[in-house]
Specification:
Strand order of the largest sheet: 1-2-3-4-5-6-7-8
Number of strands: 17
CATH topology of the largest domain: TIM Barrel
Helix content: 25-40%
CATH architecture of the largest domain: Alpha-Beta Barrel
Radius of gyration: 29 Å
Low-confidence stretches: 517-527
């Protein structure tokens, strides 16, 4: 059995840009417990008041799977363990598990700890023994073990024997600098396994891009305890990504580390932790990223349609993710067939005509990968029975500076709904805001549901900056009705025209949804 040891709340918070409140840490603890993590390292109670508060508050949680660990260091040079404030804080946290780190590298003993080698060995053994005598389960993190093994192998192994002599329940070999490769890890575990009988664990960092691979190599070499953080957050280049480790253990190595059905919660758990930590989950994150099962090339999509999983190493459902087919200039007919099925458009005849159209539009600056609402509207407009909700006659947008009033943007718009003509004028903080307001004013009497639509995001990208003020501009608009979210696109050398294209699609798609189109729901994203 492999023990999953999560250190997101401690080592993860050492990553640049990561800051968790006590409430955040409690929420993540509950998520990890529900997922099935066995040990959650809560922080360093001797280092800051926030972590001390967490250990006090976490006692109120009713945890079903996880046990909490407090983290700290061996006692200070010159202090007996019984008088060391750091060890006292660890015991005061009242956690069933205490994890302490000690120096494994001669270089660190002499230059960082500034003591002699024998003294360091005594610090390790006595610190572990003191915590054991107080009834704690002790995990010993052998900091810089792999570097120390290369520097002075005999001494690095002696530190493990010291931890074992103190009674450590698990000895974790740490690639603290993150520079090892999988074969380095395997050989080091072989040497450690021949030195001590205590169960071994692994803790790796990702500075060489090998943290997950190194963790798996350690497990193959005999490690029964693996440490990591959710989504690999952590100091410098991050820690081993526990998400990828769990998936690989279950799906590739056949190691059961979770209860039945829990692996399907993997993607949701990773995204939730990312949101709480304000660290968006990378789209290309293995197994759980939005792009992990996204297919763009026409050849790939055609193969997928003929043989489900032809271009997937596992089925997305196994980890709670979903397959996505992207539409772009690289698309073939299969991509659009898939999207037509997704949108509930069973007639593929009109769909086939769009392949050349999409390629032509993308050559003019459009990008449909993220703008699925625009793709669906294009498909529907090709159908004979499609009836637009409104028709643009013309618009005028004026931006001027008036003395005493500053800048003013005003838009005038004429649209036709059925046989009726609407002409409205509105102002705004800028030309796009004015155009949006004028369009809404014209539509609201016929389509009152438009009051629920909100512009959630507005992105502008300059595609050929060498053209200066004549550059091609792409506009993406994210809209929401409070429940769902959709994205539309426009592109032009005139930023107002590009904005209008995206705005027009945004409003029409929202009205399509509100009218209960059967396909509209398939391309929604939760708001």
């Amino acid at each position: 059995m492999i023990t999953l040891y999560d250190t997101t709340l401690r080592d993860g918070t050492q990553g640049e840009g990561v800051a968790l409140t006590v409430h955040d840490k409690l929420r993540i603890t509950a998520l990890l417990d529900d997922f099935g993590v066995q040990v959650i390292e809560g922080g360093w109670p001797g280092s800051n008041p926030k972590d001390a508060d967490f250990f006090r508050e976490v006692r109120r949680l009713s945890l079903g799977h996880a046990r909490i660990a407090a983290f700290g260091s061996t006692c200070r040079v010159g202090l007996p363990p019984e008088q060391d404030p750091n060890l006292a804080a660890l015991l005061a946290a009242e956690t069933p598990i205490v994890t302490i780190f000690g120096k494994s590298s001669e270089r660190h003993v002499r230059k960082v700890l500034r003591t002699d080698l024998d003294t360091n060995l005594r610090l390790i053994e006595q610190s572990v023994a003191h915590l054991k005598s107080c009834g704690r389960e002790v995990v010993y993190d052998a900091e810089h073990f792999f570097d120390g093994l290369l520097d002075n192998g005999d001494y690095a192994l002696a530190t493990l024997r010291a931890a074992e002599a103190g009674g450590a329940d698990c000895i974790v070999l740490c690639d603290t600098n993150g520079g090892m490769l999988p074969w380095d890890v395997e050989s080091a575990f072989a040497r450690a396994g021949n030195t001590v009988r205590t169960p071994l664990g692994v803790h790796t960092h990702n500075d060489s891009g090998c943290a997950v691979a190194n963790s798996l190599a350690a497990i193959r070499a005999g490690s029964t305890h693996v440490q990591g953080t959710i989504n690999g957050i952590g100091e410098r280049c991050g820690n081993a990504d526990l998400v990828a480790i769990v998936a690989n253990l279950e799906l590739k190595l056949g190691c059961r580390v979770l209860s039945d059905g829990q692996l399907r919660k993997l993607a949701e758990m990773a995204r939730c932790v990312g949101e709480i930590a304000n660290m968006a989950l990378p789209g290309a994150a293995p197994y759980v990223g939005r792009s992990a099962f996204a297919h763009k090339a026409g050849v790939h999509v055609a193969a997928q349609r003929r043989d489900d999983g032809a271009y997937e190493h596992v089925h997305p459902d196994t980890v709670g993710n979903t397959r996505r087919v992207l539409v772009s200039e690289l698309s073939g007919r299969g991509n659009l067939y898939c999207k037509a099925d997704e949108f509930g458009l069973e007639d593929h005849e009109s769909t086939e005509k769009l392949v050349a159209r999409i390629k032509e539009l993308e050559s003019r600056g459009f990008s449909f990968e993220a703008a699925e609402a625009s793709v669906e509207l294009m498909m529907r407009r090709e159908r004979a029975q499609h009836q637009p909700f409104f028709e643009l006659i013309d618009y005028v947008v004026v931006v001027e500076h008036r003395a005493g009033r500053g800048h003013l943007a005003e838009a005038s718009i004429k649209i036709r709904i059925g046989k009726e003509l609407f002409h409205t004028v509105s102002d705004g903080v800028g030309p796009v805001a004015a155009l949006d307001a004028a369009l809404r004013k014209a539509l609201v009497s016929v389509y009152p549901q438009i009051d629920t639509f909100r512009l959630a995001d507005y992105k502008v990208r300059i595609l050929d900056s060498h053209a200066a003020t004549g550059a091609l501009t792409r506009v993406l608009i994210d809209s929401s009705d409070g429940h769902t979210r959709w994205t539309t696109v426009g592109a032009s050398r005139n930023i107002i025209e590009a904005s209008w294209q995206a705005l027009y699609d945004s409003i029409e798609y929202g009205l399509l949804r509100a009218a209960g189109s059967p396909g509209a729901k398939s391309s929604e994203q939760a708001a």
